[in-house]
Amino acid sequence: MRIGEIGAGSIAEALELRIGTRILTVNGARVRDSIDFHFLTAEEEIELEAVDPEGTRLVCEISRDPSESLGIVPARDTIRECANECVFCFIDGNPPGARDPLWLRDDDFRLSFTYGSYVTLTNLGPRGLQRLVEQRISPLYVSVHTTNPELRVRLLKNDRAGLILDQLSELLSGGLELHTQVVLCPEWNDGLELDRTIRELYALGDGVLSLSVVPVGLTRYNLGRPVRLLDRREAEMAIRQTEGIRARAIRERGRHWCYAADELFLIAGQDVPAAGYYDDWPLRENGVGAVRTLVDAFHANSERLVPLAGVDRVRIVTGTSMSQYFLDFAPVVAARMECAAEVVAVENGYFGPSVTVAGLLPGTDILESLRDPRRGDLVLLAATALNDDDVFIDGVTLRDVKGKLAPARISAGHELVEALLAGHAGDTPHVRAGGSGPT
User: Fold this and answer.
1) Which among 177, 211, 219 is positioned nearest to 194, based on CA atoms?
2) Is the pLDDT of residue 430 over 50?
3) What is the pLDDT of residues 192-227, one digit of tens each?
4) Which of 33, 106, 136, 252 could cross-link to 77 by cystine, CB 3.0-4.6 Å?
5) What 3-state DSSP class applies to 353?
6) Are 155 and 189 in contact (CB under 8 A)?
7) Angle, vertex CA 70, rays to CA 67 and CA 75, nearest 5
């Protein structure tokens, strides 16, 4: 593990440790990554063995109060990549020439623990699983997809995929807690197979904190190769399949346990459930409850909308799947702001029309949909469509969009934005002037 930052006035600075120094061991135990480092440096008495950027070996003996930070910020770990070739892999749906970061197939338990990303566990052997238990890496987020061993091998194209129930049992017996998910693929893991998966995951006990059922997402580049999208009837059926276990779970465990993702309700043409469906909102980042958060936040805060000087028209940019909700909001926005309010539902030309969420809207398509910018326009963009560097999925930057939309106004910080953003829902429209976003 390499040092990425040194805290000012810290123990590390006093020891004259430098950025780029490699930490080899802590109290004789090898440091493989930042998780190891944090786990091993929880002691009061620490002996660090390190190598500085010039190759000089160092040994540092440290005695400190447990509340005192060492001041060492680890550099970013090398990401563990996926060992699967899932039949529904979204990365296989990338357009030719997509930016390099979009091709990274991560399957890293450290990202699961720290950021809530889902992992399959297929790249972890017995020692890797034991490490998770020893270091209490919990909760973990696990993509199960199916508990049928043979079917999981076929879905993930990995012979180790069939070990999933044994792996989950080992982690649970070690005291870890797990959130699980199924990416639902029609004619693969739906129907009776989904019933089996729900039944067998629930039977593993309280350590399985949740199961979210998420419809498969495909682009024009991998649609039907070999997986297709769910149709309305199949989405309705999947929602019904979750209801029985939800009723049982609320009686036995005090929470509903199993949740259908927002997108299932949208495909089924149904309203998303009321807030009580989501318990304490554990899975909003997985598309479970984000729409309800947005709708309730808007209605709770809409009275804060006021007219804005110089704004004649508000244009709310979103994906096609969320357009109806914003069409419902538009009359309220127009009345309270005393201006026109327009919803711009952008069809995704980068991935194809099967991709309907605002978080994957490319800058090119946004610009194409806003070809008539004029003075007096206030344009709201989706925060989730931008990464931390303010770049859209297709490499177009926010600066590019702002330049080409002039004289339209793209700004942040007014109560209109706060009202629309309250709750931080995944597809919430967000006015951005250059800050960082969650994607």
Assistant:
1) 211
2) no
3) 999 999 999 999 999 999 999 999 999 999 999 999
4) 33
5) coil
6) yes
7) 130
